[in-house]
Design a protein that fits this description.
Dihydrodipicolinate Reductase, domain 2, 2 domains, alpha/beta, 10 helices, 30% helix
């Protein structure tokens, strides 16, 4: 099996998740390549300690990402830094000739995103993708199969979102995601939005207009030094979009809900598509359950409940009767990245990582959402990103 050598820039939670996935690569039965983490970079040496202790293949640690990019042994970099650093670090990685997996939103704003895409266009030999792991759950992959088969008929309505309650506690200390200078004006949209957009954008859904309602709920938080400081980013966001179905050109309403303050939700990712021939819905709140309804004119409307098991896109050693979880999603996402890097195309349409063009579409929507919020009105979306 081919070995692809990685460097990590940003050694927080998602960097550790990747290191954990790489450590259990033997779990996969038919991977296109194997990742090997050789280098790690963080602005804080304390973050590097975990990697030194847990990644035996590591040969370089540094506080300066430029040193990592100069390492000729590194083939691919995973950039998992705060949003305000995306443009600088991602563009530098591409210019250095390193293949790139970047974190969402792939630029703090639309201008930064376009700079990254411009760099990628200058270097077509560099493989560039964005992270989004949730679509690799077996239940949502089955729903995606229905989308690919145009099984829904005319789409009546679609709803997607990511809800969690990590910021429900007003006494939780502030962090960079509550600060507009680091997280960006998008707020929760940039933080969580790609999770709700990944499958629809891959399906070819393109909204023609958008109405956004964005909420700032907890307006100040403790700073850990006895002070209360302002929270300057949006906590919750709701988008309602009139969207065209690429299969028939007919419009349908699509709602996207992303919330960091969603009482009762630990971390819920969901997709629901209602159509004239079939409907389907799936939620990570009950990840084994996929609900599907096939409708025949004059017949009963019955929801079928399907218990999905361990049925990943990229085959693994776990038996199908067992359960699939978040760490398995991470392993599948990285398998998808390496498959496309090696073979030049995803294993299947909905089993690929987010493309640079799809990140541009997300920025188009997020920018329009900010304008809609300012105007308190529906805004039209231009045809091109």
């Amino acid at each position: 099996m081919k070995t692809v050598r990685f460097g990590l820039i940003g050694c927080g939670l998602m960097g550790r998740e990747f290191a954990s996935a790489a450590a259990r690569w033997c779990h996969l039965l038919e991977a296109a390549a194997r990742p090997q983490i050789l280098a790690a970079c963080s602005a804080h040496d304390t973050s590097l300690r975990w990697f030194r202790e847990n990644v035996p293949s590591l040969t370089q640690t540094t506080l300066d990402y430029r040193e990592l990019l100069q390492n000729p042994e590194v083939d691919v970099v995973y950039v998992a830094v705060p949003h305000h650093l995306h443009q600088e670090v991602c563009c530098a990685a591409i210019e250095a000739g390193k293949h790139l997996m970047g974190e969402k939103p792939f630029g703090i704003d639309r201008e930064a995103n376009e700079a990254i895409l411009t760099a990628a266009r200058r270097h077509p030999e560099v493989f560039v993708r964005c992270s989004s792991e949730f679509p690799f759950f077996p239940g949502i992959q089955r729903l995606c199969d229905l989308l690919e088969q145009n099984a829904f008929g005319r789409i009546i309505e679609a709803n997607t979102g990511l809800l969690h309650s990590s910021d429900l506690d007003p006494h939780k200390p502030i962090n960079w995601k509550r600060m507009v200078e680091f997280n960006g004006e998008y707020g929760v949209l940039g933080d969580l939005g790609m999770h709700a957009l990944h499958v629809p954008l891959r399906a070819g859904w393109r909204p023609s207009n958008l109405r956004a309602v964005l909420s700032k709920i907890v307006k100040q938080r403790p700073d850990g030094r006895g002070n209360l400081v302002p929270c300057t980013t949006w906590d919750n966001g709701l988008l309602l979009m009139e969207t065209l179905d690429p299969a028939n050109g007919e419009p349908f309403p699509w709602t996207v809900k992303v919330q960091r303050i969603a009482p009762g939700h630990r971390n819920t990712w969901y997709t629901e598509v209602l159509g004239t021939r079939a409907s389907a819905r799936w939620s990570s709140a009950n990840p084994r359950l996929l609900e599907v309804m096939h409708y025949t004119p004059g017949g009963e409307q019955k929801w079928e409940q399907i218990q999905t098991g361990y049925e990943p896109t990229f085959r693994a050693m776990t038996g199908a009767i067992f359960e699939f979880g978040f760490s398995d999603c991470m392993l599948q996402m990285w398998a998808a990245f390496l498959h496309e890097l090696v073979h030049g195309k995803p294993l299947k349409r909905f089993a690929g990582c987010v493309t640079p063009e799809e990140t541009a579409l997300s920025h188009r929507l997020f920018t329009a959402a900010l304008e809609s919020q300012r105007q308190g009105a529906t805004v039209a979306l231009e045809d091109k990103c």
